[in-house]
Structures are given as structure tokens and as C-alpha cells.
Amino acid sequence: MSVHTADKTKITTVHLKKMKDNGEKICVLTAYDYTTARIIDGAGIEVVIVGDSASNTMIGNPTTLSITLEQMIHYAKAVVNGTKRALVIADMPFGTVCGNPLKSLDAAIRMMQETGADAIKVEGGAEIREDIKKIIDAGIPIMAHLGLMPQSINKYGTYGVRGKDKEEAKKLMEDCLLMEELGVFGILLEKIPASLAAQISAKISIPTIGIGAGSATDGQVLVIQDVMGMNKDFSPKFLRRYADLHTIMTGATQSYISDVKAGSFPNEDESY
Ligand code: KIV
Fold first, then answer.
1. Which H/E stretch holds residue 119?
2. Is the CB of 226 under 6 A from ligand 1?
3. Nearest CA to ligand 1 atom 7
4. Residue 89 pairs with which residues in a beta bridge?
5. What integer pLDDT is reported at residue 1 of this predicted model?
6. Maximal CA-CA distance, the chain
């Protein structure tokens, strides 16, 4: 089965597996609000992740650690409201899935029930295997997030590339195989060597979605503000900007200011 933009059928985790099997790349973007979700869903994006990067992009926090479950539910609900076709995956924030399966299940149920998301994303590997099992057993689809896990920044001390040494690469491969065995429907691989991402993607039968993980993953994801060029301060090697909204929005704001100052907005046609 091929998933085309013209086909308005709601995308499911089953579609993503078929896309991998057919060699069709999976296109993923983040979103955190209704309007953006409507635009990218209408444009044909296949998966929308409501990332905990909302902590940075929407709230301006320095890390993803400070965003709460309540805040993530707020953003995820807005994205679900704006999405008809894409699969919506809501990120579980820091501390909600961390070694207490019953507590993790409660948080995952809240996320699904209060937002209407199709699935959740969880950072972590073998350390949270029991939580993953519990949540999947309850019928909640999970995308695992491995490689660079921003919620563990205080452990790493850096946002650098992960899995570069043999030991870490081995653990990463093992975690991916374990996650597949536990029944996650996909794995997001962040900032790892392209060759390692290629090996993982070939070895497991579920889709891999990469960010800074080279071209061999089954799909790609980027943060919407980065893709649209809204943030001039963030230019990692893996980022390709597809628009320059920073310049466009700055220019539009300045034009608006000068029109209001000059008294030329609103004109007669724009008045009642
Ligand atoms: O939080 C986030 O935006 C992410 C992206 C890598 C999808 O995890």
C-alpha cells in the first residue's frame, strides 16, 4: 500500500509498517498548535509529533525537562483538533515514564484520553522495559525514542552525537531490538551516526524515524520552527530550512507597525 497525499484515509501505525515494507519514506514534522497542525496535515504530512520540544519552542525553557504532563496535554489536544489525516503522536514528558509501570500507565492513559492522540512517544531503553510493556498491554501504541534523548541532558552533559563508541552503539542496537520485541510500533533515532542508523533500520522490522541520523532511516522528522526558518539561533548540521519565516514575519510585523503609525491601517474598506 502506498500512502499518497490525495488519499485522505486516516494514517495508522499499520500504514507506517507497510510504508517501511514498501520502501516508502515516512514524513514527520512536529507541531504544537491547531493552526500549524491544520496546515501541515492539509499539505500531506503523514505523522505529526507533539514533541516535548514544546518546552523550548513554545515556552522558551532551556531544556525539555520542565514541561509538565498538563502542558503537553494542552498542546497535544490542540494538534489533534487540527489534524484529520496524519497520525498524531504525543510525547510523554520527563518523569512520567520512568520505572514505575502503574504510574506510567496512568500518565499514558491521561495523555490518550484527554487529547485524542493516536499514540505516545517515550524516551528510554531497557531501563523502562516494564513501563513500556504495561502501557502496550493496555492498548496504547508507543514510539520509542533512542539515541540522543534530550530528557537525559543532565546525564550526558551535552547534546552531541550519541552511539559513536562501540559500547554505546551496541547498547543502542540492543535497546532497539528489545523495543521491537516489546511491541513498540516505531523507533525515533536522534543524532546518531548514519551508518549505525542504517544498520538498525535494516535489522528491525518496525519503522525508524531519524533526526540527525542520516538518510537510511525509514522516515525523517524535524521540528517545525526549524524547518520553517523561524529560529535563526539554531543551525545544527542535520537541519535543512525550507522557508525563512523569521524574515517574512519580521518584515510583515514592520509593515504593520508602519501602517498603523501612519494611520493607513485600517482604511475605509477595512472599516465598518
Ligand atoms: O520533542 C521533540 O520535538 C522530538 C523530536 C525529535 C520529534 O522528540
1. strand 119-123
2. no
3. 51
4. 49, 119
5. 42
6. 70
52 lines ligand 1 (CB under 6 A): yes
Which structural domains are found in the chain, ordered by start? 3-241 (3.20.20.60), 244-272 (no CATH)
**If 0-12 CB within 10 Å is exposed, 13-18 middle and 19+ buried, where does residue 68 land?**
middle
pLDDT, tens digit, 9 for 90 and up, residues 133-170: 999 999 999 999 999 999 999 999 999 999 999 999 99
Helices (H), the chain: 13-22, 34-42, 54-57, 69-81, 101-115, 129-137, 153-156, 166-182, 194-203, 224-227, 245-262
Q: What is the pLDDT along the chain (272 residues), one digit of tens a residue?
A: 445 556 789 999 999 999 999 999 999 999 999 999 999 999 999 999 999 999 999 999 999 999 999 999 999 999 999 999 999 999 999 999 999 999 999 999 999 999 999 999 999 999 999 999 999 999 999 999 999 999 999 999 999 999 999 999 999 999 999 999 999 999 999 999 999 999 999 999 999 999 999 999 999 999 999 999 999 999 999 999 999 999 999 999 999 999 999 999 999 999 99
Catalytic residue list:
190
Ligand 1 neighbour 175 (Cβ under 6 A): no
Q: CB neighbours of 127 closer than 8 A, spacing ≥ 6?
A: 99
The helix/strand/coil state of 210 is strand
Its pTM stands at 0.97
Q: Which of 28, 52, 151, 238 maximizes ligand 1 atoms within 8 Å of its Cβ, making it the mutation to test the pocket?
A: 52
What per-residue confidence (pLDDT) applies to 6? 64
Q: How far apart are CA 47 and CA 34, in angstroms?
A: 15
